[in-house]
Design goal:
Helices cover about 35% and strands about 15% of the residues. The protein is globular. The protein folds into two domains: about 230 residues, Type I PLP-dependent aspartate aminotransferase-like (Major domain) (Aspartate Aminotransferase, domain 2), CATH 3.40.640; about 120 residues, Aspartate Aminotransferase, domain 1. It contains twelve helices and 14 strands. Helix 1 runs antiparallel to helix 8. The protein is α/β, with parallel strands linked by helices. The protein starts with 18 loop residues before the first helix and ends with a helix. It has a four-stranded mixed sheet with strand order 1-9-8-5, with helices on both faces. Bound molecules: pyridoxal-5'-phosphate (PLP). The site of pyridoxal-5'-phosphate (PLP) has 14 residues, from helix 3.
Length: about 375
């Protein structure tokens, strides 16, 4: 029996080397708490990098979305517009608030929120007196959404944007970094993201008052008094100073990680980009993707019957992880019978798509394992 090769993951943590210095400093100075110099330093790093004037480091990206909705006054029964093709964490905080998610289809060039379907939703909801409290577009797999069109509509209807940039740190539109477009921007540092703090997130904004309020709510909403006094419901959503140390170390290698992820995309594109029925997500003019995950679409009518699932199973046999795209939220049992605007773009992407191993720590040997699977499958020389 041939020895089983080690598991090759879709996207695994990739430390740069300096993380432990910052973590050690936290221990040496006993800042082992949800505040301290690493939290402040990490927030400064994020502000500088994204071009957002203010940042709050939080316990997760999900917490950042939840706080955004609270800051925007989302209450039970309110409507909140959300991209359908996304990870459930984009939509779940809408339900935490007892609000109603309204899902929007994707458009084929970025796979993100379709401006036409968004326009339809804004028009219909507003006409019924149910003007939404927020719009949550997502930059899926690092590809920026069509923010220019989305912001134009949001401005016209005066609905604030919560920009879910959890997968898109380092991505840009015309030189402007993702996370800095919305009234509020959300980042995630979960273990599988382009940089990680093991778990963590951040909230970004140009509005200092919003970020100050986010910090207040994230630390149990304690009023200024010597005793513990509360006039609002608070949360325990701040980032630990130990984990922020990992974040500071990761920020030092973010540009390398970006280059490595983008080189993964080139690797796949060079290898199978020319095959009939295999299609990659290309960057529209002016768009720059961090290529967090390389994804492809497979049309079995043109590949001679090879489906995304055929590819996934072939990889799995070699202990290589690949994964279908996010299943659209409007097709999820938990969000059954929720309002939806659009056609079948997201649904079709889900049927035809696959996420490929995309770690920035992928070795040449690991690429060789991948190359072999794809060569055999597509009968390449
Ligand atoms: C990862 C992710 C989140 C949530 O971030 P966590 O830090 O895991 O809570 C939200 N939205 C999208 C699109 C994500 O990929």
């Amino acid at each position: 029996m041939k020895p089983h090769p080690p598991r090759l993951y879709l996207s695994s943590p990739h430390m740069g080397g300096r993380e432990q210095d910052f973590v050690k400093e936290a221990f040496d100075t006993n800042w082992v708490a949800p505040l301290g110099p690493n939290v402040d330093g990490f927030e400064r790093d994020l502000q500088e990098y994204t071009g957002s004037a203010h940042a709050a480091a939080l316990s997760s990206g999900t917490a950042a979305i939840h706080l955004s909705l609270i800051l925007l006054g989302v209450k039970p029964g309110d409507h909140v517009i959300c991209q359908s093709l996304t990870f459930s964490a984009s939509a779940n905080p809408i339900a935490y608030q007892g609000a109603i998610p309204v899902f929007i289809d994707s458009e084929p060039d970025t796979w993100n929120m379709c401006p036409d379907a968004l326009k339809q939703a804004l028009k219909e909801l507003t006409a019924k007196g149910k003007k939404p409290k927020a719009i949550i577009p997502v930059h899926l797999y690092g590809m920026p959404a069509r923010m220019e069109e989305i912001m134009q509509l949001a401005g016209q209807y005066e609905v604030p944007i919560v920009e879910d940039a959890a997968e898109a740190l380092g991505s840009e539109i015309k030189g402007r970094r993702c996370g800095s477009f919305g009234k509020l921007g959300v980042l995630s540092f979960n273990g599988n993201k382009i940089i990680t703090t093991s778990g963590g997130g951040a909230l970004l904004s140009a509005d200092e008052a919003l970020i100050q309020k986010a910090r207040f709510l994230a630390t149990q909403a304690r009023d200024p008094a010597p005793h513990y006094q509360h006039s609002q419901i608070g949360y325990n959503y701040r980032m630990s100073n130990v984990l922020a140390g990992i974040g500071r170390g990761q920020m030092l290698v973010l540009q390398d990680r970006l280059a490595q992820r983008r080189s993964n995309f080139e690797f796949y594109h060079d290898l199978i980009g020319g095959i009939a029925g295999v299609e990659f997500l290309m960057e529209p003019e002016g768009f720059f993707s961090n290529r967090w995950l390389t994804t492809l679409l497979v049309d079995p009518q043109k590949t001679g019957g090879i489906t995304p699932e055929t590819i996934r199973l072939a990889f799995e046999k070699e202990n290589i992880e690949s994964r279908p795209l996010w299943k659209p939220m409007h097709l999820q049992p938990v969000f059954e019978n929720h309002p939806y605007f659009g056609g079948r773009v997201a649904e079709t992407l889900f049927k035809k798509g696959l996420c490929l191993p995309s770690g920035s720590n992928m070795t040449e040997q690991e690429r060789e394992r991948i190359r072999l699977v794809l060569k055999n499958l597509f009968g390449l020389k």
